[in-house]
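S1.2 Input.
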Amino acid sequence: MTDKERERLLRELAVLEREQQQVQRELQRFKERLLRYEAKVADDVADDVEEEVVATPAPPPIVERVERVAEAPLVSRPATASSTADTAVQEREKKYADLEFWLGGRGLLLLGVTALVLAVGFFVNEAIQRGWMGPAARVLLGAGVGVVAVVAGERIRAFGYRTYGLWLAAGGFAAIYLCIWTAAALYSLVSTPQAFALMSVVVVSAGALGLLRKSESLVALAALGGYLAPLLLRVETTSNVFGLGYLALLTAAGLWVAYRGRWLYLASLAVVGGTFLPIANTGDPHLHGVYLLAVVAAALGISRRHGWHYVSLLTVALGWLSLWAGGEGWGITGIAFAAYAAVLWLVGLVASLGMTDWTFEEPGKLLRGADELTGHVLTLIPPWVFFAAAMVGLEDSVYRDSSDAIGFALALVLGVVYVSQAVWGRPGSGAASSAMRIGLGCIFWIAAPAILWENVELARAWLVEGVVFTAAGIGLKSVLARASGLVAFALAVFCYWISVELRPEVDPAFISGWGLTGLAACLGLAAWWLALGRLDSLESWENEVRPFVLLAPAVFFLTWGTAEIFRFYDLLGDAARWELARDLSISSFWMAYAAVLLSVGFWLKQPPVRWVGLGMALIAAGKVFLYDLSQLSELYRIASFVLLAIVLLALSFGYQRLRRA
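S1.3 Output.
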């Protein structure tokens, strides 16, 4: 067995192993969905049916039945066209029935509760205008209607109409909540602390009823009322008791209940309220920072436990937004701001380690791609946000003069962190993708020199990185390392040519630091092209880009040599005296360059190199015929044509020998 066949078999084995892991993950996720569905069905039956049931043998659990079916031998059942059509019709009718019962049951119920609340509001408004009752009577009337709605909802639920009763009770709690706010904000019947305490009682009561009846909607409504209470009553946010203490207690309770009940929407609400509301608070800076980190860590923990990936994305986004928007108001600046940003990034990083399941429960292609994008966002964006926060913090600290050097070192460290995770971490997709982490690390390494250097010094740094990346890509057979080397060489060429105008006027040609840097920048791309020739197999994009990578340094080198010849004669002074010598030198350089390229192409047996050399020879011939013929004196013109003839005849003879061979 040859080495190529062995590598091919190893690649096929790796593909089969990845597919097997994917099938196992899909099976595990399917079992978890069935368990959740079975638990939900059991809860609904326990709440809706309150009559005696004749004792009968219980059917086996859903997961057990599925496993039995999976283990049973397959029986061939030929599917007919009529059975397939009947199944499609039944599925369509079921969807229409589900939509009809949802609109008729819950949609009309929501409209009815809204209409009832509006009717009470209109009645109170009419009573106010006609002077039928005072402010206290109005508030008590509204609260009484709310109490009646809560009691009636519970009674209706007891008769088997669970959703109807719970929603009616939710409307009653909302009415009581609004009446308390009206008594404090509009009529000043109660003080702000008293109203806040009464609202808290309503929130706790609604939440307790929601927990007792296992209703996520009612618990989420209670949590929403809890978050809105300080805003509606304009409670003094400078107090830690009414500020962070209250928010911490409410958010912790919401996240805990969401974790125990697997209530995704309640978790989302707790994340929004717990991270967004503290932005307007003031007080002790470290207390705010620790609170924010604790909320983000807890939310990411339960999101990872239950696979709520978009809740993870929401947590990371709002966590960074809260730090950036509220940090200055909290008093978190300078090194403290950079430190809290570092911990916030590390919390998100730890939460995403080893995560390989980045797909929605529904196997839709669009949703699968969106959730995989969520994993990429969680991996890619936070390090850059942290890096920006660290640089901002350094600019406002005593380390301002050393911020560039610290930023350079920090970028190198971030690159090491991500490459290390890719090498020693678990393989997978999304946030755990090895290729994604290696790419992120290489990006940090490539961007790091731009923090500390500029102009020709930056070009030299990128040249060094290009050599290192290319060598690593060849030795380790890493596609990303080779791509990073190509990017580094291209950036070096670009940086050199855009900064060439800053070159000192007295800088010597060819042998100075500027001249040698330009030569190395041109040859770096050629070295990358030659290095890829040592590999047995290349990626498709590498095969496509190689001809352009060879052509680019050839053109750059021709331009560099011509520019250096011009500089050499310009430094001699007396331009009119040296004009003929300069033109002849340029023609000689072009023809010699073409001859060297063709000779190297013959020696290496590389047609692309010979094609580039042939193109350079044609360009040199064109210059002699079109420019030297009219601009040079008779003696120099003869010398140019003699030199051109020698080169062209020699090259032609080389092609004849190659064709004959």
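S1.4 Remarks. The two ends are 33 Å apart (CA to CA).
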